Amino acid sequence: MINLIGFTGAVLCLLLGWQFPWSKTPLIMGLCYGLASLGVSIMMRAGQVSFGHALYAAIGAYTVAFMARAYPGMDGMLMLFFAVIVSAAAGALVGVFVVRYRGIFFGMLNLALSMVVYAMLGKMYDISGGTDGLRLDRPAMLGSVLERADFESALLLLVVLSAVFMVWLVQRYSKSAAGEALSGIKSNETRLEYLGMSARLIMWQAYVFSALLVGLSGGLFALVQGLVTPDIGAWFRSGEYVFIAVLGGSGHAMGAFLGAVVFEVVKLFAAAYMTGIWQMLLGLTLIFVIILAPDGIVGLLRKRRAVDAGEQA
Amino acid sequence: MNLDLVLLAVADGVSYAGLLFMVSLGLTLVFGVMGIVNVAHGALYAFGGYAASSLTLLAMPQNPPTAALLLILPLAALLVGVVLGTAIEAGLLRRIQGRDPIQQLLMTFAGFMVLEDVQRLVWGTQPYSAPEVISRLGTVSFFNVTYTSYQLILIPLMALVSYAGLMFFLRFTSAGRQVVAVTHHREMATALGINAKRVGWLTFVLGASLGALGGAMAAPTTSMVPGAGADMIVLSFAVVATAGMGQITGALLASLMIGLTRAAAVYMAPEWEVAVPYLIMVLVLLVRPDGLFSVAQARRI
Q: B211 to each of B11, B104, B162, B164, B257, how far by Cα in Å?
């Protein structure tokens, strides 16, 4: 059922973008949010909420911007590749330290690191362009130079394909031994250690994976916007990723994207009818989700399916 | 760097640490007793500041004495603490009591988002400030440095009074000892006849008032703008985590450490100013994973 929703959604995104060209940018942005939230939701399986994952979006985005500036004419796909590699490497390095912490400290340490980088990006004018950020020209994609409309179509296709691939990959991962052990950290870490597994190693793997996903989304953000500012690494961005991941639920990889849809809809609705209080609407949504559906949209769908199965039996 | 600048930096740092400490004190108290990291604490800081400014502006046409103007600040904080503290505790937290701490944290995060917009609806986006008290209290001079007595004496004094008051409350009053008992073991305390629900409310309102007090005391020195609450909550988190969650005396030292280092950074390397508190926190947590003043806890299997 959830897989069906996923495929229908992917096809729908492409159809929408093809029929209504104006919808391409919001669709790409929404899917980027979904990709980043998917990264955050991996850590949530271990019961760990990071309030600083936007750090990796910033790393991915600035990698793209630096590449574009250092090597004009570099292919967009290659930039994206570097964005993923660099953010995964950063995740591997930072991960060594942060996987020692759990709960509030894990969240806060991530937040602190992202705040340091965010502050530095805004101040180091010579390197990062300060708060004005860095502009980058539209790069060639896979060797072909594209006009604006075609470039956006290509990006949309790329984002949809990466989303589908990543959902599949995360689902595979969560059913693997490492993935099952990861949720063991949430239920009982001590028992996991007694079974002979290193909780830190398992956390570290998950952390690198989550950094890679957020980095990819950051790189895509940079390409679609053509502008990278420190705001991409701000703490409220991290908060939005957490928000979406909670909304969707971490039980299935699709959750992040379902959450992103709700997030975008609430945002659009608020922008159209209630300007100025969209944050309040998001907050109220979150309160209702936590009280009524603590496992998110995915949890609701699963429960429904369980009830259906029960009736048939 | 000459002596005057050093003294000026110390004065800045102490004054800033005083504000930071009041906010962190509320945060760490609520965590210590209820095990909840209250993200909405930042909104309480902002509301405290706005309320104090509004009340001061309201009182100004009557030309009130200085003492009355000073009294407005804690009164505004208490008002905000009782009203909003009760709303958050009874409206949000009590509904998800005993659930995963992360969900409780997200709940207060949601509350913070709502309150941020409420604040924008009530006070708009233009800056609010009420600096009247500062000019009334005049300045103090030491060596070659002149500083406002409000910032150099009153704010640190207020911070120390809050600290001593809280310590006295927790150690020597019946209600305070009940709070400590609940912190120690909630079930046992309930079995002994302590109303844990009421203690929870009392703690939360007390913590909320301290957060608002930080804002109210800050109101005359800076102008309140949207986003002030968000900056403060992240910063006071850094203080509380550096000190060790729930450590009251630790928070005092951590505030001083972060306040002074930040002030030093302002004069020596201004571009590092914003990053310094977090760098301190990261460095401390790398060496002592539970904070500087944490106490060892038994592992539960």
A: 22, 19, 11, 16, 19
